[in-house]
Amino acid sequence: xxxxxxxxxxxxxxxxxxxxxxxxxxxxxxxxxxxxxxxxxxxxxxxxxxxxxxxxxxxxxxxxxxxxxxxxxxxxxxxxxxxxxxxxxxxxxxxxxxxxxxxxxxxxxxxxxxxxxxxxxxxxxxxxxxxxxxxxxxxxxxxxxxxxxxxxxxxxxxxxxxxxxxxxxxxxxxxxxxxxxxxxxxxxxxxxxxxxxxxxxxxxxxxxxxxxxxxxxxxxxxxxxxxxxxxxxxxxxxxxxxxxxxxxxxxxxxxxxxxxxxxxxxxxxxxxxxxxxxxxxxxxxxxxxxxxxxxxxxxxxxxxxxxxxxxxxxxxxxxxxxxxxxxxxxxxxxxxxxxxxxxxxxxxxxxxxxxxxxxxxxxxxxxxxxxxxxxxxxxxxxxxxxxxxxxxxxxxxxxxxxxx
Amino acid sequence: xxxxxxxxxxxxxxxxxxxxxxxxxxxxxxxxxxxxxxxxxxxxxxxxxxxxxxxxxxxxxxxxxxxxxxxxxxxxxxxxxxxxxxxxxxxxxxxxxxxxxxxxxxxxxxxxxxxxxxxxxxxxxxxxxxxxxxxxxxxxxxxxxxxxxxxxxxxxxxxxxxxxxxxxxxxxxxxxxxxxxxxxxxxxxxxxxxxxxxxxxxxxxxxxxxxxxxxxxxxxxxxxxxxxxxxxxxxxxxxxxxxxxxxxxxxxxxxxxxxxxxxxxxxxxxxxxxxxxxxxxxxxxxxxxxxxxxxx
Lengths: 404, 296
Description:
In chain A, the strands form 3 sheets. In chain A, strands 1, 2, 3, 4, 7, 11 and 12 form a 7-stranded mixed β-sheet that branches. In chain A, strands 9-8-10 form a 3-stranded antiparallel β-sheet. Chain A has a two-stranded antiparallel ribbon with strand order 5-6. Helices cover about 45% and strands about 15% of the residues of chain A. In chain A, helix 10 (about 225-240) packs across helix 17 (about 390-400). By secondary structure, chain A is α/β, with parallel strands linked by helices. Chain B has about 300 residues and is mainly α. Chain B has a domain at about 20-105 and about 170-290: MetI-like fold, CATH 1.10.3720.10. Classes of the chains: A alpha/beta (about 400), B mainly alpha (about 300). The interface of A and B includes residues 93, 109 and 112 of A.
């Protein structure tokens, strides 16, 4: 008993010591720190690191040009957004200081971060290039998955869900859900899609829901799981009907686009799916996809979304973060990002606001084979539904289609 | 008086650095998880404290199927690991100490990390893997799609293959160490009294090895039950093990579903903890019968 007491007392002492050092004050940020004071500091960027293209672009193009212009070092930390949010949630609960200056975010994650008070801002009015090059009336700059942005995040790039097929394998590509079903029937065991809650798999499922019940029906639905189920039920039934023709008869699904695209490259799957509109050009360039691969979308359109950058509530260097965001949305940097050899992500600027030199840079980009033009994609771009509906739809898919 | 105090306190002071880390990383995390699983997250305006998130688990079809699947994978893989591990331990013991090759061979899988074995498993067992390619070239299958799905499958074949590869040598190592240290006099006496080799195995060797076999079984079982990366990389989305389910729920951006996710996590801890209790109880029973050993 005596030994036990000793242990308890010592433990309590150690707890006291540790909590005393742990309760650091939240880093406060001043609004406009002069650039001279920021030189030599570091700004930390957290975001998805699952693509060598995005990583290399940040490390080899953004970081050196940013350092040259501002003298600030860019430190990139690859981390999935779910883990970043949990890190911030933990820091918020502990009222602790953090190390994230800029976070790559959008959609339901932005919705959660905004409502949980995880973000610093509003910031858009403090980013010069936002007013100079972006169109303030573009819905992408005002709403993110139906959530009013309110200046709390700045557009980073624009993406769209696209499909890819090999013209040497398929005579024609499906232009709607019904033709997708026919393609699956004609090629049993050779079509599949990525399982939600994977980001791209989740978007593909919503795209099918748009096809079957329409975007408006889902967008206008109240925030109630039972009602949403009733509304999207025909689409879920469609996906159940699809199952016998899927790879492994839909008993299992790929868990990532990387896996699906590997299956496409190996000739196991007839269709690849990506949220990077120029991915076919990249994959042909890398020698992974056959040269006869072509991008396609549904006639009624494919879901597109914008991804953003935000600053966490406890960013240690928010002034440098503002400069980094400003740098990243500058047309020159955005144009390097549009180059499929670097990333192939669509720029956020309004083309009409570019000066002749910038336009020349943009037009000089040749993104290679097998892709759709920016105009074709724009004509077939459908908006996202409200962020809070996405986890509900993912759950309904798991419950009714996956577990069926 | 004072020196007596320090004498008593000294061992505790010495382990204090370790305890601090344990407290903050492990106990701290566990307490957080338990508090949140009750529904209490004041920073986000959630003040409720109840057990309803646990109660809901029992009617949650996905949780229950996941629980079954996790038990199935952990049980089958550890039973097979123990079976083959003990067999190999006996075989090595028979080869005498001279056979250095078998000595080193069975230790190789232990030093190769799980993640590397996962990649090997995909390269070997997937539909585009080595076996499938062989079968295709020999004309056994017409296309890679005809090859049975052994990775990402609902029966967890790929997951269990990786576990077996890693765990059989572990069991061998554990059992062989005890086997070599056994007092061979018992066996000699049994032989002298006319016991057959099967009787010796069943009535002398195995009971003496029981604590180490039991330890090996429970350690492999507990590991397979709570392991994350192998089922995450090789599992089917239709059959998630509990740690993967907890991870997916934990990563959901909906804060309101956080307590339910934490309830899953805490359940995993409770189940693992009960294994340890069962294990301690079994060892206690064995020691009453005069058999000592094991890791507790």
